[in-house]
Structures are given as structure tokens and as C-alpha cells.
Specification:
This protein has about 120 residues and is an alpha+beta fold. It has helices at about 65-75, 75-90, 100-105, 110-115; strands at about 10, 20-25, 25-35, 50-55, 60-65. It has one domain (about 5-115). The protein has a 5-stranded antiparallel beta sheet. α1 (about 65-75) crosses α2. The radius of gyration is 13 Å and the shape is globular. The structure holds zinc ion. Zinc ion (ZN) binds near residues 93 and 109.
């Protein structure tokens, strides 16, 4: 599985209440956040929350754990993003707080929805 096709952003899978951060940084970095420990959702490199669980370098293979959950995100990224937005009321792309029902249903805040 090539995780470079995973869109950057935030996700939740059907397994438990763990949240996932997919970050493109010349490859792909994958981090895990516990939803009860989710103060900051900023994706700038120095402030990305969570614990690294895996990485795929450009031209390389994924090295890391939790491939079952990552497969779920890979196959249904929109659903996993919406699940994230519903749980923490934040945009699945930038992590900013969202409150409008419409935004939560689509998984994006209004600014990120414009740039799709
Ligand atoms: Zn956003």
C-alpha cells in the first residue's frame, strides 16, 4: 500500500477513539493522538501533536505499525475524516475548531472546503 496517496489531514477509524494525523513532509508521516489528549491540532512540523507510529519515505515502503487502521483510512478517507470531525468538532484538514453542522457533516471547515 502506498500511503503517499493518503490525503494530508486528520482521521478517526472505527477502532476505538484513537485519532490519526497524516502529514506530507517529503514522504508521509503518520501520528496517533488520543482524543482525550488533543489540545493542539496544528500540523506545522514543530507543533504536530501525537506520537509517531510510522513513516514512508518517497520511493520507499511504509515502515511502522497499525496497518489495519491505516488501510481503513486509505480505502475510505472521507468517512474517516468525517468521523474525526464529529468526534472532536475540528476540521479534518487544518484542525481548526468548527461548529456549523454543515461543516461537521462534510468533515471540513468552510475555508478548507473552498480549496478542495
Ligand atoms: Zn480547515
Amino acid at each position: 500500500m502506498d500511503y503517499r496517496h493518503l490525503p494530508e489531514g486528520y482521521y478517526q477509524t472505527t477502532k476505538g477513539d484513537t485519532l490519526w494525523v497524516i502529514q506530507h513532509d517529503g514522504g508521509v508521516s503518520i501520528r496517533q493522538i488520543n482524543s482525550d489528549n488533543s489540545k493542539s491540532f496544528r500540523t506545522d512540523a514543530a507543533r504536530t501533536p501525537g506520537t509517531p507510529v510510522g513513516r514512508q519515505k518517497n520511493g520507499g515502503f511504509y515502515t511502522g505499525s497499525h496497518t489495519e487502521e491505516l488501510s481503513e483510512i486509505y480505502l475510505r478517507p472521507a468517512d474517516a475524516r468525517i468521523a474525526f470531525a464529529q468526534t472532536v468538532k475540528r476540521c479534518g484538514k487544518c484542525g481548526k475548531k468548527i461548529s456549523a453542522e454543515e461543516s461537521i457533516k462534510r468533515g471540513f471547515g468552510p475555508e478548507c472546503a473552498k480549496n478542495l
